[in-house]
Amino acid sequence: MFLTITTTGSGGMPATDLGFLLHKHPEKAQVFSTSYGDAHVFYPVASEQRCTAALLLEVDPVALVRRGKGKGRGGAPDSALGQYVNDRPYAASSLLAVALRTVFASALRGVCDARPERAAQPLPLRIEIPAVPARGGAALVRRLFEPLGWTVEAEPVALDEMFPEWGESRYVRLVLEGEMRLSAALRHLYVLLPVLDDAKHYWVSPDEVDKLLRMGDGWLAAHPEQRLITSRYLSRRWSLTRQAMERLELARLAEADDSEAEELDNAVDEEEDTEDKPLPLAVQRREAILAELRDAGANRVLDLGCGQGQLVGALLKDVRFTEVLGVDVSSRALGEAARRLRLDRMGERQSSRVRLVQGSLTYTDARLKGYDAAVLSEVVEHLDLPRLPALEYAVFGSARPATVLVTTPNVEYNVRWETLPAGHVRHADHRFEWTREEFRSWAEQVAGRHGYGVRFVPVGPDDPEVGPPTQMAVFTLTATTSTTSTSSTTTTTTTTAKEVTPV
């Protein structure tokens, strides 16, 4: 996937100022990591008379399959082979748009401390992209770019030059020429490349409306193809398209009235507006855990891997939880938890409900026995897989609370985060992240070995294609007495765990 930006110099303004505006030195070749591969920036030509910056995006086809399948998220919908053999590494699309935003973020904002006067001035620009998918053909390309002041050359690419009778493909070779600010040119590309492709490689969420209006500021409201651009950019999601169109109309009316949009859109008093805002995933996770603990009737609760004490603090706010024990292997985390909870200032009655102790969850520990419930929130993924059997026995075989809650990331949902690099886990310390099927398989095996029943609860928005961002297993003890390990698997697990005497 390839794009070049060329400008010329004149009147004491060298063309190499392009390097300052893009914040990329013409004498260096640089590499940047993006969600789907590496983006290379280099300058084939760099003189005072003429300067060309090139952006080459190397897309990893396997990463496309890992991060999303099907139309609009990097894969082809036609066949299994189509997931790996497709146009994404070669044709400009939303992948290239994201690379532009990643690599040229300051240039998109029009920020250049070294050459502020150049950033504010129109430049003679020539932009070339060898292959652009255009659902609508060359005519649509012109309808989109010409109203913005570009001279457009959109040359259809033949399906096969050896067989001209096959006709034209849906791709065009695009050349744009015009005098305009570099930031405006980059914003045009950022919005219109995925519009031409009529697909996006990531899930379109409500915040895409803000992104569209921000990138379209100054030109989208007056564009004759405003509705088509808005609909395609938002993946034809009707509710989002309507929201964007309403805000664009409000901006147009405000400009005509020579006033601010906020002055016209004043029917709602923001100070009295009680509309709920989206809750952070961490908050949704804690609320889901608290709800399950309340339903289970738990009073004495273990927070295993308590970290900095966020869940412990939430438990202490509910008087039904009469005893809370936070356990973590990190003394630094425990110190931070004590500071956050203000244990040194806590009243005697409240402080009697909470303890923070250091301990490893892969060792059996007599201090963990006798509790109603245990929580392992975002903990298991921080352990190496060979150590999971030891944790399993320490919690389910030795401590044996009546209820155990385990939450962990759903790796399938990672495709919904545009900025998460392909193949990367959500946190640098995660040793693995499970799919829903992998997590279900592990949980059901653990439950079967130790006399528990298990059910699964989604945490966060439950996407119909990839599930929720967090998956939770709720284990409930079904055996009336402590089970004895008889299977070879459990016996091996038991010998892996070590005993810790109370302190």
Structure overview:
The protein has 18 helices and 16 strands. It starts with a strand and ends with a strand. It is α/β, with parallel strands linked by helices. The model is unreliable at 69-79, 261-275 and 481-503 (pLDDT under 50). The strands form three sheets. Strands 2-3-4-1-5-7-6 form a seven-stranded antiparallel β-sheet.
Please supply descriptive tags for the structure shown above:
single chain; 503 residues; alpha/beta; seven-stranded mixed β-sheet
Fold topology:
Layout: E1 2-8, H1 17-22, E2 30-34, E3 37-46, E4 50-59, H2 61-67, H3 94-103, H4 105-109, H5 116-119, E5 123-133, H6 137-145, E6 151-158, E7 168-180, H7 182-197, H8 207-215, H9 226-233, H10 238-256, H11 261-264, H12 281-296, E8 300-304, H13 310-316, E9 323-328, H14 331-341, H15 348-351, E10 354-358, E11 364-365, E12 373-377, H16 388-399, E13 403-409, H17 436-450, E14 452-459, E15 470-477, H18 488-496, E16 499-500
Parallel strand pairs: 8-9, 8-12, 9-10, 11-16, 12-13
Antiparallel strand pairs: 1-4, 1-5, 2-3, 3-4, 5-7, 6-7, 13-15, 14-15
Helix pairs in contact: 3-7, 7-9, 8-10, 9-10, 16-18
